[in-house]
Amino acid sequence: MALLKIKFTFQSRVRLAQGLWLLSWLAVIAATLTFSMGVFLKAELHKRSEVMDNTEIHAVPNTLIVVGLASLGINFFAGRICQDALDTTRFPRWKSFLQPYFILSLFFTLLMLVAVIMSYAMKGNLEESLKIGLKNGIRFYKDTDIPGRCFQKETIDRLQMDFRCCGNNNYKDWFEVQWISNRFLDFTSKEVKDRIKSNVDGRYLIDGVPFSCCNPESPRPCIQHQLTNNSAHYNYEYQTEELNLFNRGCREALVSYYMGIMNSIGAGVLSVFILQMSVLVSVRYLQTATEALVGQENTEIETEGYLLEKEVKETIKEKMDTILKFLPINQVDAAAGQGSAEVGEKPATPAS
Amino acid sequence: MMCAVCKCRVTQELSATGPVFVVLLSGLPHKNKAALRQSENPSAKLLKCTSRKEFFFPTSDAPLADYSCTAFVIRSPPAADRNEMAVLKVTFTKTKRDKLAQVLWILNWVSVVTGMILLSLGLFLKVEIQQRRELMSDREVHSVPNMLIAVGLIACGINFLGGKICYDCVDTAKFLRWKLLMLPYIICTFFFTFLLLVGALMCYCMRNELEESLFVGLRDAMRYYKDTDTPGRCFLKRTVDMLQIQFQCCGNDGFQDWFYVQWIGNRYLDMSSAEVTDRLRSNVEGKYLMDSVPFSCCNPSSPRPCIQQQVTNNPAHFNYDYQEEELNLWMRGCRQALLEYYTHIMQSIGLTVLIIWLFELSVLTGVRYLQTAMENVLRQGDPDSESDGWLLENSFAETARYNFNIIKNLGKCYQVDDDPNIDVPSTAQHESDKVPPKQIPVPS
């Protein structure tokens, strides 16, 4: 009782081999595309790695790179197999190779599917990572003299200008951190001393934002200091002013940017997955159809091709038995079985 | 030498005016091409090879294409410049000719691709200039990309035609189709290469025009920076801000340019405040000038939060000296930044055009050799024989003189002229009296 049996005439075998050859080359191109998409995603994530707390999200591009390389190998061999399949003298040398080939190919193709699912599922992970990374970035904005953090200011400024965003959730995040370093504060001035005394941690907090939050689309020259003080600026009301600063938070901007990339990549990889599965199924059919020819004199007869020789449950049981045979549990049973056989024989012998 | 049809032998004979060569049109190499050319003129004088012992001239109704063995008497030119007259002569066997034709076919197609490259370079430059048209005053800057586009299109067309011609040159029968077109084609391509050279030179010379245009354009853009409510100028602020952020520059020559323009709109100035009215009164034109710059001049690499207000006022900021502060604002002027950017693009484009010009010139040389070799093969009649190819048939001086004569005589109808290369007797009788030629020995 084979699984999904199909009869193949000689003509349809030939056509299957030709179609498979073409398909395998298409799949090689698709695998290269997958690899390059993985590299691109990794480069993009690496560019902004300073505002990410951890690199767990890098699992997606890493998987894609591995799968792309493996697919190249799989499809290359698929092409070679189908070239040899029509020649019964050359086909038998693939015999021992095909079983591990199928297992490996199935594994990597399923890994492709896993990568697609990951790219959608890891959004929360990315968001968390960005939340912490941006919070630290904003906190260490002023530490341009501390080694290891001296480029945080430039990173955050360029990020806000490139992605047209301000702060973590919105521009008010800047009100809660001191983003002007103490080196540039005049501690003899009364205003500075008042501000520092006004909060528990002794930080110089202002209702101002860095210049990188300014929106060039605003018709008005940028207002970055005393944002919530309407009377400090002529004809200004911060509740209705929308174009002055960027309204979006940088976390939201970055998440939507990366999810956009990963969604398009996911759609592409899904189609590559379907292509790869069809290649594998065709190779399997070609293999089983050609194997039936081995030993026959007339190579133009009709043969049957199938996916699995027996039903799914039987195949699994068989495989499990083979695997269990190699385990020590069975050896103990065999020894015990031998012992019980001897015991069984002893009472028999005196009788005879 | 023997005529293949009438089997009469023709030899060299001497006459009073110099050695006379009798030339056969089929099989044997000709010695004087100028005379041959005249023979293609239907009114030239021709001799038919006969068994008679004397030469005489046929009637003018003998059609040109009718003869297979025809000889005509020519005066040999002075021996000195007989063989060395052609410029850069090269001998071609049949295989060499075929290979030349094939190579030229491929090169012509490569030239079509280079023509398309030229076209795309022109389009790219046009788009780049168009993108920043608000910052350039309306001047002749568009002439360079337009010329590149035109030249690219013409190159594609010319080389496509050249490819077709070279493809047909392998077969002498097909070559006849193109024979008349080839010389005008070569002349056109030669002038076109001049156009390419002009295009390349224009790329390098555009810089000055561009600088003028940018100076005026940026000055106006900064002046209208504040006019975000005036239709037609409302996006100038955004353009200037994005420019300064993207090109990392500030102002026209430097950030001080912002001190001399009012870049805050009057709508945002509190006219009742004393400070504002003071500033307005402090200058003749009533402009609100300050020593501040827009936020887009700020340099993100600065270790200090950006100081854009009261830039030259040292005590206004703690621990600040504007003469020593280099990282606070962008130091470069936007005119210089844009000029460097466009100059870099145009230098690369100019270099590419020069390389394409050299390539086109070499293809043209190959086509000229192929044309002359094919024409000589046709004149000899045997498609498999060796033939000569050259750049110019006579020396430069001769060719120039010849062409001048043609242009001079363009208006006149064809007359019997005193060209010494054609033997023009008044009557046949006179000819036999004046110049007794040696007998042509007829094999009996």
TrEMBL record, chain A:
SUPFAM superfamilies: Tetraspanin. Pfam families: Tetraspanin. The chain crosses the membrane at residues 20-41, 62-81, 101-121, 255-275. One of its GO terms (cellular component) is plasma membrane. Signal peptide: none annotated. It is found in: Membrane. It comes from the Eukaryota. Keywords: Membrane, Transmembrane, Transmembrane helix. The keyword Membrane applies. One of its GO terms (biological process) is visual perception. It is a multi-pass membrane protein. InterPro entries: Peripherin/rom-1, Peripherin/rom-1_CS, Peripherin_LEL, Tetraspanin/Peripherin, Tetraspanin_EC2_sf. Its main location: membrane. The keyword Electron transport does not apply. Belongs to the PRPH2/ROM1 family. This is Peripherin-2-like. The lineage of its organism: Eukaryota, Metazoa, Chordata, Craniata, Vertebrata.
